[in-house]
Design a protein that fits this description.
By secondary structure, the protein is mainly α. Helix content is 77%, strand content 0%. The chain is built from 11 helices and no strands. It has helices spanning 2-10, 14-52, 57-69, 73-80, 91-104, 109-117, 119-136, 140-149, 157-169, 173-186, 191-204. Helix 3 (57-69) runs parallel beside helix 5 (91-104), helix 5 packs antiparallel against helix 6 (109-117) and helix 10 runs antiparallel to helix 11 (191-204). The longest helix has 39 residues, at 14-52.
Length: 209
């Protein structure tokens, strides 16, 4: 019975209890070593991914998380900071960035925390999720209307690219190309902007040049 087990545990010889404690500590230390190795491997893997594709939000957030797990909050902040440059930043991404800022003593820590807890961020996040859901189910008209309602839709590269694709699927060729070209001007280093600019032109039967 449970009572019997408890009694037996209390009567366990002190030496055996000490041995059990040492056994637990040994295994706990090994578990810590294993976790450290996993985080280190993840850091190396996602660093390569970010170098190959700087616009890959998933790889960037995972690298930042691995850097935080290995105690390098300053590097995590540098990795995660570009994710917050768009209104499309997710709550998870902004939470990671705010934590990295706080842990590294960055002067933006308070501002990021305030943004994360603001009603405005919650409202925009809800709109973004609605837009992304519409995009995933192929409701391009709803997606485009939602994206146009978001702040920064005339200058945010990530938002411009979503507007380009939505317009392209709606057959609004000129608008799609214009949005994609504006994204290139806003972020000339972004390979995703060049890709979308080419894609909407192919859909329209035009050349990138």
């Amino acid at each position: 019975t449970r009572a019997g087990v408890g009694l037996a545990g209390r009567r366990l010889p002190r030496a055996l209890r000490q041995l059990a404690g040492e056994h637990f500590i040994e295994h706990h230390a090994k578990a810590v070593e294993i976790r450290a190795a996993i985080h280190g491997a993840a850091r190396a893997l996602f660093r390569r991914s970010v170098l190959l594709s700087p616009q890959n939000r998933f790889a960037r957030s995972m690298l930042g998380e691995a850097q935080m797990a290995t105690g390098d909050a300053a590097s995590a902040f540098d990795t995660l900071h570009p994710l917050a440059d768009t209104v499309l930043v997710s709550r998870r991404e902004l939470t990671l960035l705010a934590a990295a800022a706080k842990a590294s003593g960055h002067p933006d820590a308070a501002k990021l925390s305030a943004r994360l807890s603001s009603a405005e961020f919650t409202r925009i996040s809800d709109q973004v999720r609605a837009g992304e859901a519409a995009r995933r189910r192929g409701d391009w008209d709803s997606a485009r209307r939602i994206y146009l309602s978001l702040p920064g839709h005339e200058s945010d590269p990530d938002l411009l690219l979503r507007l380009a694709m939505s317009s392209s699927h709606l057959g609004q060729t000129d608008a799609a190309i214009a949005y994609a070209d504006k994204a290139i001007v806003a972020a000339p280093w972004a390979s995703s902007a060049l890709h979308v600019a080419g894609q909407v032109r192919v859909r329209a039967g035009q050349d990138l040049g």
